[in-house]
Amino acid sequence: MTTSYEDFVSALEYLVAIEPDPKAYDDDMDEYDRIMAPFEAEIDKAHATIRAYGQQIAPQGLEHMQDVLQRLLAQQKDQKSISIMRSKINWHWDGCGQWLG
Could you tell me the sign of the dihedral formed by the alpha carbons of 77, 78, 79, 83, in that order? Predict the structure, then answer.
């Protein structure tokens, strides 16, 4: 199964879109989990898409993977998107090729 760059970006954008404002849960992780619970299936699918894309491009080398990350982050307009996308990619690409999250 191949994952397109567009699917990869859409998965990340989805995760950014559903991330609640920190004021909604005030660092209470149980409350955060309750807020996010309705999205669990979609979150799992987005995570799988991010991982699959990392595995797919890993044979092109670490430099290519870093370029993909930098190109994506350069297109973002706000710090929330940059932070979430960087975190999700580092987490899900960890161990894909030479990527160390």
Answer: negative
